[in-house]
Structure formats: structure tokens, C-alpha cells
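Q: Give me a backbone?
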Amino acid sequence: MKVVLINGSPNQYGCTYTALKEIEKTLNKELIDTEILWIGNKPIADCIACGTCKKIHKCIFNNDKVNSIIEDLPNIDAIIVGSPVYYAGSSGQLCSFLDRLFYAGSGFEGKLAASIVSCRRGGAATSFDRLNKYFTINSMPLVSSQYWNMVHGNTPEEVKQDIEGLQTMRTLGKNMAWLLKCIEAGKEKGIEKPKLEEKTYTNFVR
């Protein structure tokens, strides 16, 4: 079982990483394989709605890690996305990354998902909500914790003083490990993922 934790902060080892690392340590204790993937601090292309991904099954832009995740999706059982809070929203760089990942990729259905956010003071709830929408439109069960998945602090050292926030991260890790093991046990008993209907689209203007 493998969980990919996407660090959407331009700071590789900042506050967002500190929160993700707390989750990773918990998952590893439960014998779950993990990878923290940093999206970097260079500009990330927006989706340009060219439609090429529907023909080649990957994004036309190949200068970041979007396609590497798409290629590895068959081996990924869960995704956790972490973002800093900017102007009461998640990182624009990360949203560009996720827009392309979820539009160009396929096979997210049934994989567990969670998001976490890191803020100095406010804006965490709206950022958290924004990230979760990527999962709920893709039939990905959300894993919850004992509180909304957020930590507070302006530096990694301050985040480490957010005792409740770190506990929330550990609880999230434990819940995700438990659900992954439940799914694995279900597979051994012959329980398969739901067979979904072909998507139907309804336009409001015809």
C-alpha cells in the first residue's frame, strides 16, 4: 500500500512539510509505504484546455511532476495534498498542478484522499474546502481526522508547538492507515470497487 503526500508549498521543508511529515511518520508506523512529493518552487503551467491529454492520456506540459504521478497512479492507493494558505486560499501554484493532474489523469476513483493546510492565523477553512473539491468530484473517499486538517504557525518551529494541530495530523494518518487496511481486507474477501455508471453531463444552456 502506498500513499503519496504532495507538498504544494514553494518552501520544501517549511510549515506544510512539517505537517505532512507528522502524517508520514504515523503511516510508516502502520507499515504503509509513503512518498513526499514536492512540486518545487518554479512556475507551474496552468491548464490551457487544449484537450491533448484526452488523446495522449497525459498532460502536454512535461516540465513538472504532474505526469510522473499520472504514470504511477496504478501503484498509488491514497493521495494527501498539503498547501500553505495565501489570501485565504490554497497555493495558486498547487491549484495549477492539481487542475492538470486531475484533468489529464484517470483512475482516481476509489483511492483514498485527504488535504491539509498550514496557515499563520486565518484562511485555513476556505483553503481546506478548495482542495477537497478535487477529490469529491473524482469519487475519492475523504479521510477525516478529529478536527479540520490544519496546523498553525509562521515557521516549522511554531508548527511544532501547535500540539492540537500535530495530533490532528497523526489522527489523520491513523485513520487513513486503518481504512487502507480495511480496503485491502475487503479485496481479499472478493469485495470490489463499485462499478460506476458512464458520466452524464447536463448543460444549463442549450
